[in-house]
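Hello,

Our lab assistant flagged a job as stuck in the queue for most of the afternoon. It eventually completed. Since we weren't sure the result was trustworthy after the delay, we are filing this so someone can double-check. Below is the sequence as submitted and the structure that was eventually returned. Let us know if re-running is recommended.
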Amino acid sequence: MSNIRRRDVLGVAGAGLASMIAGCAGGGGNGGGSSGLTIYSVVDEPAMNDTILPPFESEHDVGDIGLVSQSPTEIASRMSTEFQTNSIESDLALNTQGTMQSLDNEGGFREPDPDGDLMKTVEENYPEDSYTSTRLPGYNIPIVVMYNTENVSEDEVPESYSELTDSTWEGRIGFDDPETLNAAGGQFASMRAELGEDEWRDVMEGIAANEPRITQGGSESYRVLSTGEVDLIIGLLNNLISAREGGEAESIEALWLEPTVALNIPTYLTKGSPSPENAETFAQWFLSEKGQRALAETGRTPALSSVAQEEFNEYFPEDVEILPVAYNDDSYYNDPDSWISRYGEIFG
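-- returned structure --
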């Protein structure tokens, strides 16, 4: 079985087959130097298989690569179960910070070798405040409002998130489930300190009253917008970039409403993983200029600022300041369960 075929099978298969293949590569949870590499990734399977992994494999022989491409919540849940049952299969994960914070707090991730090439690359190329000992850089995705110009008139284009409480938007809005602490959850959390608790809750309940289409992730949100199932979404810029690079999205426009924030998708090294050395090899390459350029080819915004500015300058308005998700509210990452409960109360 070829590496590419194995990646395809892992990306689609259930936990049983993933466990079997990972076991063939050296077992789980022993922290030894077994060959192979298993990556759990929120980056979709085609982007990983066709664009990111080939240049890595051309430079590094780590054996068979297993890829599990799932939604942020599915990855976090899967890794939490593996951690609690001491049956670790993943070596490395790329996933949103919000959905991984609980597992990070529980000790599910490890620090890199402080004297290794990975930490050298991180320390030389990334700001100190952009990573922690267990949460390394990865990539960022600005959260924007996107709308279909064929269905939204110029007079209807909102100038603030508060305008989405108007009844004219009933049944016309879509976004990913806020309880997953992904795009919509991160955007809404960043608004609470700006609006104040009472006004923030009024806005959230007003949006919920308009019966938004709740999706499982940013890609699905963009799909229901592009197919005309909804007229406006709160989503991720990379989906629009990818569509435009492919000659599509002629009727889709982006709005940079304040506060403008970006979703953080860090790189995590799994504690007790089967192939820790290979995990660091991939992470070092991924965070190098070569890896970040490969990532940029998928329409995602690299954490390496020099590459991001060069590749995506045309998509970012000069007068917009893009801040990290929950830049003004530490509770979003320190107490994620409270936010999950809060969103559950509001959006059901």
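-- support follow-up --
The delay was a queue issue, not a problem with the job. The result is valid. Residues 1-34 have pLDDT under 50 and may be disordered. The first strand starts at residue 37 and ends at 41.
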